[in-house]
Amino acid sequence: MMTTTKCLFWLCLCLAPFVVFSSTFTSQNPIDLPSAKPVPVLDTTGKEVDPRSSYRMVYTNRGPYGGDIYLDYSPAGSICPDGVFRYGQVGPKGTPVRLITPSHFGPGVYEDQDINIQFVISNVEKCGNYTIWKVGPYNREERVSFLETGQQDSKSCFKIVKSPRLLGYELITCDGALVGTMGQRVALVADFSLDFDFEKVQD
């Protein structure tokens, strides 16, 4: 009986340091897994896109089937241009845009970050407050939702993601809908995304 008691005593003494070490390590030295670093969106020169600057959204391939994104009047008509379009050919310059990012996220624009998009126009006094991009109502005749412009309180949330074809970027809504074109109008689509790059507008 005495021998068994001694063995248990020495066993407890041997295990005590391991128990203390384990408790100290887990409570004071947690393992920090590396967090994914945000990937900046780049312009056509390889520089990081700056939300304080203006850019044109230009067709990635520079081929004959697509051009820049621009602001124009939708068929419904309005006192201000209110439709998001894409030129059917390379040549005409698009309407510059600015990317509006959350102020707490830092000075850059990053892939997969929630953003708003606003056209930059010269007629600021009359129409400047109506140039925020938004997803319009579902058009039953065309069976699609076109992108429109509106006021600050009617804006839609978007994300810039790398194109799976490794050619520039795609645009999706924050709930995952793909943005592409129906004819020359920019709309929510099932496929054929709006591949584009950002070309900085010179000040």
Automatic annotation (TrEMBL):
The keyword Signal applies. It comes from the Eukaryota. The keyword Signal applies. Residues 1-22 form the signal peptide. Keywords: Protease inhibitor, Signal. One of its GO terms (molecular function) is peptidase inhibitor activity. PANTHER family: ASPARTIC PROTEASE INHIBITOR 10, KUNITZ TRYPSIN INHIBITOR 2. Belongs to the protease inhibitor I3 (leguminous Kunitz-type inhibitor) family. This is Uncharacterized protein. It comes from Solanum stoloniferum.
